[in-house]
Design brief:
The complex is a heterodimer of chains A (623) and B (356). With 623 residues, chain A is mainly alpha-helical. Chain A is built from 20 helices and two strands. Chain B has nine helices and twelve strands. In chain B, helix 6 crosses helix 9. The longest helix of chain B is centred in the first third of the chain and has 34 residues, at 36-69. Classes of the chains: A mainly alpha (623), B alpha+beta (356). Chains A and B meet through helix 3, helix 5, helix 8, helix 9 and helix 10 of A and helix 2, helix 3, strand 7 and strand 9 of B.
């Protein structure tokens, strides 16, 4: 019965992935697409560092540089970090709560394809007249003034992929609320599931402001609106507010799952339950809540006045408290534990000092009056790379090594993993630590080049050298992935030996229905509890019965494709004759396939009890 | 023991200040504050850095103990499963709150102090302010500085008196920019739709150390030449400043003295004068002033804000401004210039002075 057992042709495999609604396969799609965009964004970063290695460099031209810096930020945030986080959420969260899939498998697939087509659309700008060049923040006066179609690609591409993210977030919320296994109360959920839950709520509230902002930008640029044109009664500061009301929660959308992944890793490789679990949950919720109260700290120099600046300064500082709670809880999870330094654990351990360094500069930036000096300098660049690379990217690397066996049934090479770790760690600090000082010494950010004689030469050269270390580390990781895939040494349920949560009770990779019988959860770290009592697996919570499964569907792909086509029509509407027809055709494809989905009943199918019993006994839950 | 703790803290402060002050050039670094505003910001940086270094030390000590002491020695060991500790958790909640309170009080105080521009509103009987006010207008890759009380305009090089507060009205005429003189204090955005106000102060002694010329920058991405949208701030004593203002106010229409310069003036009057004014009193509305005022061009320290101030660079700039500032508004507004025309124009422009 298991699809993994059947040998499939290449075309059949492709078709399977194009139509899949299985959360584990969608996770792999997210991982591949996000990984691809991560490499694209990384190449853009290398161009930036090569350009800034020496003063007055002309490796790239000024206009092209602005396109590269814009696409580096946009790609890394929206097309690399977010989907890679979604990959782990999809792969792990349903397993952690003991569910057979997410609540809406069809929507899960739709979310992925929307993100994917949005990302492809955005990157096609490179080949169709130039990429967006107004920064990932796309501040209105500049984005309205920007010539060509670059910013149109930005607005339309993000609109499509943002819809996918919003759908994904809602899906995770419903899944966690409704589909927890018997006994899996909220306060028994693993921290990664908790962070997925909080982050999904953040997505639900943070993405609509972006959607609205992007629509206003689309209207202004493509349909003659004047929302951001002050000579026509518009206002550009509105964009800054809308962008950051989304943008600040967005950084917590990135970092909280990273915290979740690290929480799992610390507990696992210290063989100890998470220290202060309840306060960790509380801190996660509090960070998510406060994340909405601080957006204007990105706008201290916009001229909001001392009252607003003071309020947002103090609110921002307050976030340091729950974050500090987390740091200490992680360290005390390890305290008294039995620490094994596997590759994921190395990333987790290195994350603590790296992230603390990024966190304290965050508090420094919250000091509004001093921020007038830091704002828009390399100090800020250093700060957000310390939190996003030192926090999110470290977590993605850690998660990749940690969950690889669960996703693919084979383990990444530990030796190569450790080489990647050390090279990346050294490169990361070389690149970004010195940038704090470059900023303080007067180097503003987003500059294509700097003039000699200002004391910036040494720092920039060091920074560029560091970037090459990170590039080599990433290449070694790719080699590791290829080697591991070719060797394909299969592993069992709990390859790390120290698994604590439900996903490690399942085979690697789990069968497509996840749990033959839903497990009974008796406490936090459910699988660990059973192991400590000498049991080999989970106690089932239900008798063996038929399992209802959804059918694969090609419709999500077509819905997304329609929007992709329509976006081209909208963009070229004014200058070509085919613009309007293409816009209409695209929307018809989308609406038509949505109508088809609504009209045609799809009841899914059942796996029968008898087939499950035939299935190899080590798949699913052991009775 | 209290004095000991205090002494330690004080020495930590001094050490931090010394370490930070070693960084950067005196004319561009925020770590070499050259005025009251930058100084108060620098003090906040030092205060927050000291607190944060304290936090880092505590974390580092626990971190090092943890990763050295609790390594797995035996594959079969199962450590005690600890739920948490209320005492510890309260400790690391309360202490950070106290530290942040210590930081937030001076933060709020400084934020309000730096926003105090009330002297700009105190108008005397002549309808002018006693305080020195400069209207800054940011344009794609150049800056205009208008002194409304003195009724003079200059571009690219701001001249200010030392040891007194200089108040600024900031606005942008095309896209958003940001006005930043790192040595003198933090930046303030020049928005397109509203005037932002703030003040800076330039210390006389520090200005001397920096050669009386501070670097100014645009700190908000504004287009391809954002990196080169520099300006300079000439900080001079009040007496010198008054002299300069007087020279600017009494400056006559420039007289080209040599034959070459006269030839240059002719070219200028044909190709350039539509945008560039050559007298400090420019009565045109700001929409018409779409290039820097050149009245004292010969006395400036840079060409276009970035190039060395010599004839060679001026010719290079006039010949092809696009190479130096891509996307600028001057390219293609005049025809190709021959070598002779470049020589003549250079002679004329370098002769534009008000102070001799």
């Amino acid at each position: 019965m298991s699809t993994y057992a059947q040998k499939q042709g290449f075309g059949a495999t492709i078709w399977d992935y194009l139509t899949t609604v299985d959360h584990k396969k969608i996770a792999i799609l997210y991982l591949i697409a996000g990984g691809f965009f991560f490499i694209v964004g990384g190449l853009e970063a290398m161009f930036i560092r090569i350009q800034l290695a020496v003063p007055n460099n002309d490796f790239v031209s000024a206009g092209l540089y602005n396109e590269i810096l814009t696409m580096h930020g946009t790609t890394m945030i929206f097309l690399a970090a977010m989907p890679l986080i979604f990959a782990f959420m999809n792969a792990v969260m349903p397993l952690q709560i003991g569910a057979r899939d997410v609540a809406f498998p069809f929507l899960n697939s739709l979310g992925f394809w929307l993100f994917f087509f949005g990302g492809v659309f955005l990157n096609l700008s490179w080949f169709l007249g130039g990429a967006p060049d107004a920064g990932w923040t796309s501040y209105a006066s500049l984005s309205i003034a920007s010539e060509g179609h670059g910013v149109d690609f930005y607005a339309l591409g993000l609109q499509i992929s943002g819809a996918g993210t919003l759908i994904g977030g809602i899906n995770f919320l419903v899944t966690i609320i409704n589909m927890r296994a018997p006994g899996m109360t909220y306060m028994r959920m693993p921290l990664f599931t908790w962070s997925t839950f909080v982050v999904s709520a953040l997505i639900l509230f943070a993405f609509p402001p972006l959607t609205v902002g992007l629509f206003l930008l689309i209207f202004d640029r493509m349909f003659g609106g004047n929302f951001f044109d002050h000579t026509m009664g518009g206002n550009t500061i509105i964009w800054e507010h809308m962008f950051w009301i989304f943008g600040h929660p967005e950084v917590y959308i990135l970092i909280l799952p990273a915290f979740g992944i690290f929480s799992e890793i610390f507990a696992t490789f210290s063989r100890k339950r998470l220290f202060g679990y309840s306060s960790m949950v509380f801190a996660t919720v509090l960070i998510g809540f406060l994340g909405f109260m601080v957006w204007a700290h990105h706008m201290f120099t916009t001229g909001l006045g001392p009252i607003a600046n003071s309020i947002f300064a103090v609110a921002t500082m307050a976030i340091a408290v729950p974050t500090g709670i987390k740091i200490f809880n992680w360290m005390f999870t390890m305290w008294g534990g039995s620490i094994k330094f596997t590759t994921p654990m190395l990333w987790a351990v290195a994350f603590i000092p790296s992230f603390v360094a990024g966190g304290v500069t965050g508090v420094m930036l919250a000091v509004a009056a001093a921020d007038y000096q830091y704002h828009d300098t390399y100090f800020v660049v250093a700060h957000f790379h310390y939190v996003i690379v030192g926090g999110v990217v470290f977590a993605l690397f850690a998660g990749a090594h940690f969950y690889w066996p669960k996703m693919f049934g084979t383990m990444l090479n530990e030796f190569l993993g450790k080489i990647t770790f050390w090279l990346f760690l050294i490169g990361f600090h070389l690149t970004f630590f010195i940038q704090h000082f470059l900023g303080l010494m007067g180097m503003q950010r987003r500059i294509v080049s700097f003039l000699p004689g200002q004391g910036f030469e040494t720092g920039n050269l060091i920074s560029t050298v560091g970037a090459f270390f990170m590039a080599v580390a990433t290449i070694i990781l790719l080699i590791n992935i290829i080697m591991t895939t070719v060797k394909n040494e299969r592993v069992g349920n709990d390859p790390w030996g120290d698994g604590r949560t439900l996903e490690w009770a399942l085979p690697s990779p789990p069968p497509f229905y996840n749990f033959k019988q839903l497990p009974l959860v008796r406490g936090l770290d459910a699988y660990w509890l059973e192991k400590m009592e000498g049991k080999k697996g989970m106690t089932p919570a239900e008798p063996l019965g038929d399992i209802h499964m959804p059918n694969n569907s090609f419709i999500p792909f077509v819905i997304s494709l329609g929007l992709f086509v329509a976006a081209f029509g909208a963009m070229y509407r004014a200058e070509t004759a085919w613009g309007i027809p293409v816009l209409i055709i695209g929307l018809l494809i989308t609406l038509g396939s949505m109508a088809m989905r609504s009209i045609k009943d799809d009841h899914g199918y059942h796996i029968h009890k008898e087939d499950l019993m035939d299935d190899d006994d080590n798949k699913g839950v052991k009775a | 023991m209290n004095w000991l703790a205090k002494g330690r803290l004080l020495s930590l402060f001094t050490l931090m200040a010394l370490v930070l002050a070693g960084c950067g050039e005196p004319y561009v670094s925020t770590l070499r504050p050259a005025g009251e505003v930058a100084q108060s910001q620098f003090d906040l940086m030092v205060l927050s850095t000291v607190i944060m270094v304290g936090v880092i030390l505590v974390v580092t000590v626990i971190f090092l103990i943890v990763i050295t002491k609790f390594r797995r020695k035996n594959e079969n060991e199962i450590p005690k499963q600890v739920e948490g500790s209320h005492k510890l958790e309260i400790l690391w909640t309360v202490i950070p709150i106290l530290l942040l309170l210590v930081l937030s009080v001076p933060t709020v105080a400084a934020t309000f102090k730096l926003a105090d521009v009330s002297p700009m509103d105190k108008v005397n009987e002549e309808g002018k302010t006693d305080a020195l006010v400069v209207n800054v207008r940011a344009n794609l890759y150049w800056w205009e500085f208008e002194y409304p009380n003195q009724e003079i305009i200059t571009g690219q090089e701001l001249v200010v008196p030392t040891d007194e507060k200089v108040y600024f009205n900031l606005i942008a005429s095309d896209v958003k920019h940001s006005f930043w003189v790192p040595s003198a204090g933090g930046k303030m955005d020049t928005n397109t739709e509203n005037v932002n106000k703030f003040y800076l102060e330039f210390d006389d002694q520090k200005a001397n150390e920096a050669g009386n010329l501070f670097y100014g920058k645009c700190a908000e991405l504004c287009g391809p030449s954002h990196a080169w949208m520099d300006f300079k701030v000439k900080a001079v004593s009040r007496a010198e400043f008054d002299q300069w203002v007087d020279d600017m106010q009494t400056a006559e229409e420039p007289q080209a003295e040599t034959a070459l310069a006269q030839q240059g003036e002719e070219i200028f009057n044909q190709s350039c004068i539509g945008c560039h004014a050559v007298t400090p009193q420019d009565g045109r509305p700001e929409q018409a002033r779409n290039a820097p005022n050149l009245a004292n061009f010969g006395e400036r320290s840079r060409i276009a804000g970035i190039l060395e101030h010599n004839e060679e660079e001026l010719k290079n700039w006039l010949d092809d401004p696009e190479t130096y500032k891509p996307g600028n508004k001057m390219t293609n507004t005049y025809g190709d210039l021959s070598d002779e025309q470049l020589d003549a124009l250079t002679e004329y422009l370098m002769g534009l002075k008000v102070q001799e």
